Amino acid sequence: MADAALWIMVIILAVVILLLMQLLKRVLAAATSIPPKIDAIAGVAAAASRDLDAVAVLLTTQGYIRSIKNSVLDYGGSLNAALPDY
Predict the structure, then answer these.
(1) E-strand spans in the chain?
(2) Tell me: the pLDDT tens digits for 69-85?
(3) What is the Cα–Cα distance from 52 to 66, expressed in whole angstroms?
(4) CA 53 – CA 57 distance, rounded (Å)
């Protein structure tokens, strides 16, 4: 009876070790698949950062447009007096 219990324990231990090895193999495969995805995300983030560099130029352009618009509006009344209506 003791021999049968010992063999059952050995079989259970072998099955548990095999299952544990399969689980660890899958975890390792999942862990090694992460770095390429991180590199892809980093590439997209770098491109997005370059796209955002234009925002500063847009802000200065917006100021120039506002200044030009105000200058044209200042001359609006003078232009109406200087140019006759046809």
Answers:
(1) none
(2) 777 777 666 656 655 65
(3) 22
(4) 8
User: Cβ contacts of residue 39 below 8 Å, gap of 6+?
Assistant: none
11-17: which pairs have CB atoms within 8 A and are 24 or more residues apart? none
Spans in the chain with pLDDT lower than 70: 75-86
Q: How far apart are CA 86 and CA 78, in angstroms?
A: 17
The dihedral of CA 5, 11, 15, 17: what is its sign? positive
Q: Which helix (H) or strand (E) holds 39?
A: helix 34-52
Distance CA 19, CA 13 (A): 10
pTM above 0.70, yes or no: no
